[in-house]
Write a structure and sequence with these properties.
Structural class: alpha/beta
Number of strands: 8
Shape: globular
Number of helices: 4
């Protein structure tokens, strides 16, 4: 069975929309695209580089896939393996693809089959709607969060659609000089309750 690892840039108030640039995702009249840029430093770049290396395939929602497919085939120097690994895109409407090694996933049944198959782990970047589906169906094995010291008040949020009750264990945590937390969590069974009294 493959692990599904969700990698997200997010603000202190949980916004994950358009971290990379002003025009990345302006839906809902979002005006803060590129909010990660002032905090990105050398350590952040090195940590992202580590996360992007390794053996894995990509699992992407349609919007993120379209952004990646429009950029990475011609700019692979910054992510050499991205054109060599398999990209799974979840979409009900996508008919054909031009990016090499792309497989279209049409529904939850196919998603479950992919997760149950043998092969490299699956990394999810961005893909807000897909992440909501993964969380609701208990498909997420790990969360690799980059938490930036800023609040935006509005925008698409990581847990916007809710998530099933689930416990996670912090496996690593690093802080960049600019205050970005790199916090990795692994799924740790059911939620436990008790009393602090």
């Amino acid at each position: 069975m493959r692990k599904i690892i969700v990698l997200e840039f997010m603000t202190l108030d949980g916004v994950m929309q358009a971290p990379g640039g002003p025009k990345e995702d302006t839906s809902g009249n979002f005006k803060y695209g590129g909010w990660t840029a002032p905090y990105f430093d050398d350590m952040s770049g090195k940590e992202m580089g580590k996360q992007m290396k390794g053996k894995y395939d990509l699992l992407l929602g349609r919007v993120t896939y379209d952004i990646f497919a429009g950029y990475w085939p011609e700019h692979a120097d910054g992510w050499p393996q991205v054109n060599k690994i398999t990209k799974y895109v979840v979409s009900r409407t996508l008919k054909g693809t031009t990016w090499k090694k792309t497989v279209v996933i049409h529904n939850n049944k196919e998603l479950q089959k992919l997760k149950s198959s043998t092969g490299p782990d699956l990394q999810v970047y961005g893909s807000g709607n897909l992440v909501q589906t993964l969380l609701k169906n208990d498909f997420v094995d790990e969360l690799w969060l980059k938490i930036f010291p800023v609040t935006l008040g509005k925008g698409k949020r990581l847990f916007q659609g809710g998530a099933i009750p689930a416990a996670f264990k912090l496996t690593t945590c690093k802080t960049s000089p600019s205050g970005v937390l790199f916090a990795n969590y692994k799924r740790a069974g059911a939620v436990k309750t008790g009393s602090v009294a």
